[in-house]
């Protein structure tokens, strides 16, 4: 019985109703898709906010880390290209380090660009 009600309730448009519906309201144009292979522009201020967890190991400030007996690479002052590539490699799993892979998984491509913008501007 329920199926019969559904069939009876479904509208069937006549040819004139279809014509009226087609001309009634134009549809909004589709949003332009982002251009492929256009590098993202990083925002250093957003990157500064995103790097708060980096300081625990990398120390960022003056390139010092909190674990001097454990080798942690210098990330402050590196080129943005290096930083972007490294984070994408961690995210893909082609560069291995469990902590960095977990961190990179949480970042969007824009986050990575922002982080690279901030860290590349740091000096001693």
DSSP helix count?
A: 7
Describe the biggest sheet? none
Which structural class is indicated by helix and strand composition? mainly alpha
Measured by DSSP, the beta-strand proportion falls in under 5%
Overall residue-averaged pLDDT value: 74
Uncertain spans: 1-33
Order of helices and strands: HHHHHHH
Shape: globular
Distance between the termini: 77 Å
Q: Give the % helix.
A: 40-55%
Compute the CA-based radius of gyration: 26 Å
Total beta strand runs:
0
Oligomer: single chain
Describe the structure.
Keywords: Electron transport, Heme, Iron, Metal-binding, Signal, Transport. The radius of gyration is 26 Å and the shape is globular. The chain has 7 helices and no strands. The relative contact order is 0.17. Mean pLDDT is 74; it is low at 1-33. It has 124 residues and is mainly α. The protein starts with a helix and ends with a helix.
SSE topology sketch:
Layout: H1 2-9, H2 15-24, H3 44-50, H4 55-58, H5 80-92, H6 98-105, H7 109-120
Helix pairs in contact: 3-7, 5-6, 5-7
Task: Give descriptors for this structure.
mainly alpha; disordered N terminus; globular; 124 residues
Short description, anyone?
With 124 residues, the protein is mostly helical. The protein contains seven helices and no strands.
């Amino acid at each position: 019985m329920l199926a019969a009600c559904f069939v009876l309730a479904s509208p069937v448009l006549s040819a004139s109703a279809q014509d009226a519906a087609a001309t009634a309201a134009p549809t909004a144009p589709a949003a332009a898709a982002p251009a492929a292979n256009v590098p993202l522009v990083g925002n250093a201020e957003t990157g500064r906010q995103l790097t708060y967890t980096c300081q625990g190991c990398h120390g960022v400030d003056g390139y010092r880390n909190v674990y001097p007996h454990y080798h942690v690479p210098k990330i402050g002052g590196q080129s943005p290209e290096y930083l972007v590539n490294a984070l994408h490699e961690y995210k893909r799993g082609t560069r291995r380090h469990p902590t960095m892979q977990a961190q990179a998984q949480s970042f969007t491509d824009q986050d990575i660009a922002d982080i690279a913008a901030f860290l590349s501007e740091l000096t001693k």
